[in-house]
Amino acid sequence: MAENLERLKQRIPLLEYLQRHNWKPCRAGARQEFVGLCPLHPETRPSFYVNAAKNLFYCHGCGRGGDLIRFIQLFLDLPFRQTVALLQQELAPAPVSRLLEETAAFYQFQLHRHPEAIRYLGQRGLHDPTLIEEMGIGYAPGGNLRRHLAALGYSFDLLLDSGLISSQGRDAFCHRMIFPCRQRGQIVNLYGRSIGAAFPHRLLPRSKGGLFGWESVSSFSTVIRVEGLFDLAVLWQAGFRNTTCAIGTQLTPAQLSQLAEQSRRSVYIAFDQDDNQAGQKGSRQLAQRLQGVGIRAHIVQLPHGHDPNSYFVAGATAADFTDCLERAQQL
Ligand SMILES: [Zn+2]
Predict the structure, then answer these.
(1) Who is most buried in 31, 63, 146, 180, counting CB within 10 A?
(2) If you measure from the C-alpha of residue 65 to the centroid of ligand 1, how many angstroms do you get, rounded to a whole number?
(3) Angle at 240 (CA atoms; ends 235, 246), nearest 5 degrees
């Protein structure tokens, strides 16, 4: 195991990985030493040092340091094992990403063969067939995924490792609506929303990737940030194509740096208005983090008890939502 990890780290040098993720060294000091702004915390003066010979980093600002694996754990907010799996996949991406493409296509094909799935989309206010197709939304009826993928030549072990099936061979997404999460065109994860009594949210045990739909949203200087994919879908459907989502209220440092890519960006946070104030608290915390990296943050107040999805399902129009945006308070 330790030997494998060493080999993995040698094949992906830390400096190369950082530069591929837009890290810019400001100056090179001693040989093989580089310094730049810390990708893990907001700062204006560079305190993030990389020793390219030793493949190590250390930040004097936030006091964190280590090797490539440690960096990715912090940057993408991933546990150790998933980080190692992600690196292995970066080196040999083909089989898993092809597997996810095949799986998403299979679920998409199932959607129109299961009236309960179409009915559920209707209940969540989604009815535009073009958008449903564009987002690649599918349905996992359960029971037949493993057979389908085995017929395509995928081994049981690969299906098990990917988290698509359980050790008993059952479809992990059984009775869920499926949204493929893409990054630079490739599917990096699948999100499944239960349509029954099971726990609502499920993702494969791997990185969620960047912000949802970022390829099309990144060009906007004003961005709406919601909690869930059904919030995003009804807003896209209503014409608010500048909406993105991170599936939940938290942002990884990698997603934060996507928002901060464009200077003077405005972000409208439209989270759930729950009774327990969790959404409101999440909004304020996020707004403060965004302000810290120079983004103007606004908190959108929806009528009590609503999230963007339920607001549209209850009959709100694009004009109603625009009113909420106009009334949003800048922090
Ligand atoms: Zn730092």
Answers:
(1) 180
(2) 9
(3) 65
